[in-house]
Design a protein that fits this description.
This protein is mainly alpha-helical and 240 residues long. The chain has 2 domains: 13-129, no CATH class; 176-228, no CATH class. The protein has 9 helices and 2 strands. Strands 1-2 form a two-stranded antiparallel sheet. Strand 1 (140-143) and strand 2 form a beta hairpin. Helix 2 runs antiparallel to helix 3 (41-50), helix 2 (20-37) runs antiparallel to helix 4 and helix 4 (61-99) crosses helix 5 (103-129).
C-alpha cells in the first residue's frame, strides 16, 4: 500500500508557486491546523520536529490561532509574489547543475523557467481579454435564390459568404428604413446638422404628400420634445 501511494499522482492546487521559502509556511500552517484538531499525535510530532516547532502539544489554542494567522498572512504574500521566489530557486538549481557538470539538467531547468514565463504571459493576456472566443466557422449556410439552402465549406467560399450574405446585409439593414429612401436623407445629411434638421426640430418643416407617415410622426415627436427642453440648456464646446 505504501508503494502504491508513492506511485499515485499527487494533484497540486498551484495557487502558491513552489519555493523553499513558501514550503516552510505552507507546512507550518498545515501543522498548526492539525494541532488545533489534535489529529494523529505521532505524525504531528515528527512533522513539527522537522519544521522546528518545539513542544507542539504544549501550545495553547489561543497561541495556535495566532500562529495560523501569521502563516496565512505569509501564504497570502507568497500567492502574490511566489513566482519571483520560484524563479530565484530554479536559477539557483540551474547554476548548481552547471557547476557540477550536469548540463542536461541545467537545460531542462531553464526550459521549465521559460515555459512557466510563457504560461504566465498568456494567462494574463487571456484574463485581460476576457473569456476564450469560439474558433472560426468551418462551414456556412446561406439562402439561395430559389429558397434553397447552400452550404459553403471551403475557406474562400466561407469568407465570401460571410461578408456578402451576412455582414453586408446586417450592417446595411438601416439603409432600408423609409427615412433613408427619399429626399429627406439628402436634406438631413450624415450628421443631421443641416437647415432641414433645424426646421424639423422647430416644427417648421413642410412634409411632402408622399412622406412616410410613421417617419413623419417620429419627426413631429422630436419637435415636441425639443420645445420642452429649454433653449441652450446644453452647452457643448469642443477643444483641440
Amino acid at each position: 500500500m505504501v508503494h502504491a501511494e508513492r506511485k499515485c499522482q499527487k494533484l497540486k492546487s498551484g495557487r502558491i508557486c513552489f519555493s523553499p521559502e513558501s514550503v516552510i509556511w505552507i507546512k507550518r500552517e498545515q501543522i498548526y491546523h492539525s494541532l488545533a484538531k489534535k489529529k494523529n499525535r505521532g505524525n504531528l510530532k515528527r512533522a513539527a520536529r522537522v519544521q522546528g516547532i518545539k513542544k507542539p502539544f504544549q501550545i495553547s489554542l489561543a497561541q495556535l490561532r495566532i500562529h495560523q494567522e501569521v502563516c496565512e498572512e505569509r501564504n497570502d504574500y507568497f500567492r502574490q509574489h511566489g513566482a519571483r521566489y520560484r524563479k530565484k530557486h530554479l536559477l539557483a538549481r540551474a547554476g548548481k547543475a552547471k557547476e557540477e557538470g550536469r548540463e542536461e539538467a541545467a537545460v531542462k531547468i531553464l526550459a521549465i523557467i521559460k515555459r512557466e514565463q510563457d504560461r504566465s504571459f498568456w494567462r494574463q493576456l487571456n484574463y485581460t481579454c476576457g473569456k476564450a472566443r469560439t474558433p472560426p466557422p468551418t462551414s456556412v449556410q446561406v439562402e439561395g435564390s430559389n429558397g434553397t439552402v447552400i452550404e459553403h465549406t471551403t475557406e474562400t467560399t466561407v469568407n465570401n459568404a460571410i461578408w456578402t450574405d451576412i455582414h453586408h446585409k446586417r450592417f446595411h439593414l438601416a439603409e432600408e428604413a423609409p427615412v433613408c429612401q427619399g429626399q429627406l436623407r439628402q436634406d438631413l445629411g450624415y450628421n443631421a446638422v443641416s437647415e432641414t434638421a433645424r426646421a424639423i426640430l422647430d416644427d417648421t418643416y413642410m412634409y411632402p404628400a408622399s412622406f412616410d407617415q410613421a417617419t413623419k410622426e417620429l419627426c413631429q415627436e422630436c419637435a415636441r420634445i425639443r420645445k420642452i427642453v429649454p433653449k441652450d440648456s446644453v452647452r457643448i464646446k469642443i477643444m483641440k
